[in-house]
Amino acid sequence: MIKAIYAGSFDPVTLGHLDIIKRASKISDKLVVAVLENPNKNCLFTIEERKKHLEIVTADIENVEVATFKGLFADFAREINANVAIRGLRNAVDFAYEQQIQLINGRLNDNIETIFLSADEKHISLSSSAVKEVAVFGGNIDFMVPSEIVGFIEEKYMKRGV
Ligand code: ADP
């Protein structure tokens, strides 16, 4: 049985993340999309908002569950008895970073195997920070994030008055 975790900040979830979620759900029995609560990161959305966005966009995928966690990924994986970590790779820069994380996670929890999924070519240039850089100036983000999320992002910037 493959119980996989796909972890990230998802601030906000992009079409690139959603593509990885859909593909990972097909190769796992259960996929937990885990939102990381990182006190050192200044996020646009609260952890509850990010969880809600992920629940909305994954509502029609039966074996996907959304969770939040604090602290080490390796500890969270142990806590929920997961055996696979899913990571997305856009380019060689992602690979260098992700390889390091994978090696460290492997030392901290030897029950976890990492599977890398390469980004679809449509999503190679997408990142949560790119979404925010465009949205802050009122640019079109329709091609970057799931349609259900566009309004939440626009609303957030309107409230901030930027
Ligand atoms: P973090 O904020 O922890 O870097 P992200 O939420 O940006 O996390 O990313 C979580 C995972 O999704 C990482 O494995 C990252 O490489 C992957 N990822 C991010 N954007 C894309 C994309 N456009 N296509 C495929 N994978 C992606």
Detailed description of the structure:
It comes from Candidatus Fimicola merdigallinarum. Pathway: Cofactor biosynthesis; coenzyme A biosynthesis; CoA from (R)-pantothenate: step 4/5. Reversibly transfers an adenylyl group from ATP to 4'-phosphopantetheine, yielding dephospho-CoA (dPCoA) and pyrophosphate. The record marks 17 as: Transition state stabilizer. It is an enzyme of class 2 (transferase). It is a single chain. The chain is of the alpha/beta class and 162 residues long. 43% of the residues lie in helices and 19% in strands. It contains six helices and five strands; from the N terminus they run E-H-E-H-E-H-E-H-E-H-H. Strands 3-2-1-4-5 form a five-stranded parallel sheet, with helices on both faces. Strand 4 (84-89), helix 4 and strand 5 form a beta-alpha-beta unit. The radius of gyration is 16 Å and the shape is globular. It starts with a strand and ends with a helix. The relative contact order is 0.20. The mean pLDDT is 95. Bound molecules: adenosine-5'-diphosphate.
